[in-house]
Amino acid sequence: MRVLTMNLHAVRARIWAAAEAAGRPEPDLIAVSKTFPAADVRLLCQKSTQRDFGENYLQEFKEKSSELADIPDICWHIIGHIQSNKSRIAAERAHWVHTIDREKIVRRLSEQRPPEMPPLQVLIEVNIGGEDVKHGVPPQEESIRELAFQVASLPNLKLRGLMCVARLGSSEEELRQQFGRMNELLQYLQQQGLDVDTLSMGMSEDLETAVACGATQVRIGSAIFGQRSYSE
Ligand SMILES: *Cc1c(COP(=O)(O)O)cnc(C)c1O
Question: Domains plus CATH for the chain?
Answer without folding.
Answer: 1-225 (3.20.20.10)
